[in-house]
């Protein structure tokens, strides 16, 4: 009897739902269920018929004469997995998808509810980076929490951002300011070389990264804060420890992939890396640290002297008057940002260069020959000016920027502020996040012959190569971006790296460590760095440096 009842009416359990869900009537439940089902079906249907995924609904990819192709990704989250995950190399995954979909010029994809495009073609990349409608950036939650929305990199395009760029351009990055800080740079470099020599004689090999990071931090701290940590005691001081720890934590927070940036509702209950909490802990530490330095400058009260060519950037900011005067929080944001932008990029680019020089001994000896004859000609130590005039050295730096661009997706994306019409007939709608896959362009055989071969000669005019402008003028190789938001630190970065490489190669012969062969695997964090820090044998040469 009970058996037949069960078979006759197998939906009896529905009548128990109101009790479980605490609802008064069954009708409520049906309505909720139907609405939910309708919503999910609609979302799935939208997703199924939308190139680029759900964030591109309502035909947003088809605003121009040509539609923007792109992968649908997964329902609701779109292509988030392409960018997230441990060991994920987003530049390579995006390049592979763009190539398979014939979407190198421009590809649409969805990052949760955020519509995004990526250009892997020099012409379209140029149009995006130089467009006035792409002069904003989307800002991550961590960057906003760490005050970066008031710093140069994330400040929206407008009066405040233009003011910051102008101040930085004339007081921090102008060629004469860079030249004025050369003595400090030479000192940091000399300290790095002796640290390397000591480690080599102690261990028989050198792990280069920590030496480069310390020199990079000192270089920025010197130019920006007027403070260097030169002696062993300085380097081990609690202040330096605190600084290093804050920088490391900041890098981790800014580099971490945060799902809530693209699925904002997740932030209410899912924050596995505790990003919000960690930012809240870090900010007061940063404030205290930077405020102390500002206070010391104020007490010295000679910042009226900021026109002094060797003044540091704190002096300059303190000396601003009237409408240009920044409040304390803005100053902290701007100063703190410089440390983040300026340290890892120069250190990790130099590490890639040294790795390539070890793997390509013939390039290393050719470079050393050029350096040795330059020292003879300069009748003394190598200066920034000598180094800038060495074509092979400059070509080695450029070739490394090509093979290992530190920001393979140019690090910080752009945001369109109105519809942008491109020369290929496509239209990028307003409020779209745009990336440029510089790595894909620099590895494209249609753009560069034998793209996987490390060949600095391709940049030396006298060796049949091309003199390519890497500072934003030629989108075949624009590792510093281009347009009005191009990297303002490009000259400082190039000068520093070229000087370091010149001195490293002149003072030591570099060879692979047999126990730890050079491994060019990448890891993409805030920038793209060597996954396994470079360890090498540095044999001291008998030269005056
Ligand atoms: C090898 C060294 C470096 C590389 C490869 C690099 C790369 C980049 C890239 C790709 C961008 C985005 C550009 C764009 O959107 O078009 C950028 C922006 C920026 N970089 Fe650099 N950078 C380097 C060194 C530096 C240094 C040394 C500093 C400062 C001390 C610096 C400060 C900045 C700032 C403030 C921005 C934001 C500009 C804005 O949004 O207006 N960079 N950098």
TrEMBL record:
Broad class of the protein's primary localization: membrane
Q: Name one GO biological process term.
A: system development
The family database entries (Gene3D superfamilies) matched by this protein are listed as:
Cytochrome P450
* UniProt-listed PROSITE patterns: CYTOCHROME_P450
Q: Which InterPro entries match?
A: Cyt_P450, Cyt_P450_CS, Cyt_P450_E_grp-I, Cyt_P450_sf, Cytochrome_P450_78A
Instruction: Give membrane topology per the record.
Output: Single-pass membrane protein
Q: Which GO terms describe its cellular component?
A: membrane
Protein name per UniProt: Uncharacterized protein
Provenance organism = Erythranthe guttata
